[in-house]
Specification:
- By secondary structure, this protein is α+β, with helices and mostly antiparallel strands.
- It folds into two domains: about 1-145, Acetylglutamate kinase-like (Carbamate kinase, 3-Layer(aba) Sandwich), CATH 3.40.1160.10; about 235-375, VC0802-like (2-Layer Sandwich), CATH 3.30.2130.10.
- It has helices at about 10-35, 40-45, 50-65, 90-100, 105, 135-145, 180-185, 200-205, 260-270, 295-300, 330-335, 360-375, and strands at about 70, 110-115, 120, 125-130, 150-155, 170-175, 175, 205-210, 220-225, 235-250, 275-280, 280-285, 305-320, 345, 350-360, 385.
- The strands form five sheets. Strands 11-12-10-13-15-14 form a six-stranded antiparallel β-sheet. Strands 5-8-9-7 form a four-stranded mixed β-sheet. A two-stranded parallel sheet has the order 1-2.
- The longest helix has 28 residues, at about 10-35.
- The protein starts with 7 loop residues before the first helix and ends with a strand.
- About 35% of the residues are buried.
Length: about 400
């Protein structure tokens, strides 16, 4: 800590504050041990401590070096509902609190330091936003402040044509659209959480994905209307841990409400569906949360025959130009001619083709698709080699 803060007196004050916070944490953990129960509310209180301490130290270091920094506890402006461990931000309240608490500081020349990931209920009980919460916080704050751009600093150079651990020849994309980024995030690209860019989309604020380990990298710009390109496919994402549910009923041939009956079951059991493929008497769909699978299958069997196939993966091929380029589907299946594709789904937007394959061949499938569309790399300004 003394490497960051040279003033010993300030270091001692900071250490006392940190010890006080750890004492509070110790008391909380002791209470949990006595009760023998760890609730999501308690878990949020514990999970918030790291964000608190890191920003406390960082803000002290900033002021030590002469920057006009001001630490603002995120729980004073990130107001959420009370769904602990995955709270939903209350945007109207956040906009109001941001205007009252943060904007005046910025207008007064302050560098505002605050936390991501954490918030609080209207009754000031600590909450967290769940996976990807820090980036989501940044996007919400940027939107509330009508920022010129939102920067997401992560551990990769930007959005790539594929996961480089699967396809070593993956290249960075200079720019992609909000819609392309949303599809990639939802279907497995780990650079962004699906919720992250939504606040930016609503106000058309560019999101820049940058590498904190290589700040010289130009990153990837995510914008509403990127320049047109001749590349039909921008990126390939994959998502493991998928379960396919096949639902069939000859009794439901031409029957009104068949799909409604199916999706009512998933709604009742609060389980999201990723992909859907239908025929006259059968529906195939995928889920990634199997915590209520047994109850779902039981309810579906009341009116249909049901089969379940586990250990599957979704491969998502994304590109704005797919809808206006002929032959893309042919190239996809040519690349996967030696791999069994269990299910196919193409969204109404026509910028995403999703395929379901066995987990055992998903990496091979991504590699073959990447070779088809990106190796050699198309001679376009869109693609850039990943920095070494």
């Amino acid at each position: 800590m003394e490497n960051l803060i040279g003033n010993r007196a300030e270091v001692q004050i900071l250490i006392l504050s940190i010890r006080k916070r750890f004492d509070e944490l110790k008391t909380l953990c002791q209470g949990i041990a006595i009760l023998g129960e760890l609730t999501n509310r308690s878990l949020d209180a514990i999970a918030s401590v790291g964000e608190e301490l890191s920003t406390m130290i960082f803000s002290k270091a900033m002021t030590e070096k002469g920057f006009p920094a001001e630490l603002v506890d995120a729980r004073t402006w990130m107001i959420t509902d009370d769904q602990f461990a995955g709270a939903t931000p209350l945007i109207d309240r956040i906009n109001e609190e941001t205007k009252n608490r943060i904007l005046p500081l910025i207008e007064g020349g302050k560098i505002v330091i605050t936390q991501g990931f954490i918030g609080s209920t209207a009754r000031r009980i600590t909450t967290t936003l769940g996976r990807g919460g820090s980036d989501f916080s940044a996007a919400i704050l940027g939107s509330a402040l009508n920022a010129e751009e939102i920067q997401i600093w992560t551990d990769v150079d930007g959005v790539l044509t594929a996961d480089p651990r699967i396809a070593p020849a993956a290249r960075k994309l200079r720019v992609i659209s909000f819609r392309e980024a949303s599809e990639l995030a939802y279907f497995g690209a780990k650079v962004l959480h699906p919720s992250t860019i939504q606040p930016a989309v609503e106000k058309n604020i560019p999101v820049i994905v940058l590498n904190s380990k290589r700040p010289q990298s130009t990153g990837t710009r995510i914008v509403g209307n990127p320049p047109k390109t001749n590349a039909p496919v921008k990126s390939i994402a994959s998502k493991k841990g998928i379960t396919v549910i096949n639902i069939q009923s000859t009794r439901m041939l031409m029957a009104y409400g068949f799909l409604s009956s199916i999706f009512a079951v998933f709604q009742r059991h609060e389980t999201s569906v990723d992909l859907v493929s239908t025929s006259e008497v059968a529906v195939s769909l995928t889920i990634d949360n199997t915590s209520r699978l047994e109850q779902i299958v039981k309810d579906l069997q009341a009116f249909a025959d049901v089969t379940v196939i586990r250990n599957q993966s979704i491969i998502c091929v994304v590109g704005e130009q797919m809808r206006s380029t002929t032959g893309v589907v042919d190239r996809v299946f040519k690349a996967l001619s030696n791999i069994n594709v269990m299910m196919i789904s193409q969204g109404a937007s026509e910028i995403n083709m999703s395929l379901v394959v066995d987990e055992g061949v998903v990496e091979q499938a991504v590699q073959q698709l990447h070779r088809e569309f990106f190796e050699p790399v198309p001679e376009l300004d869109l693609f850039e080699q990943v920095d070494a």
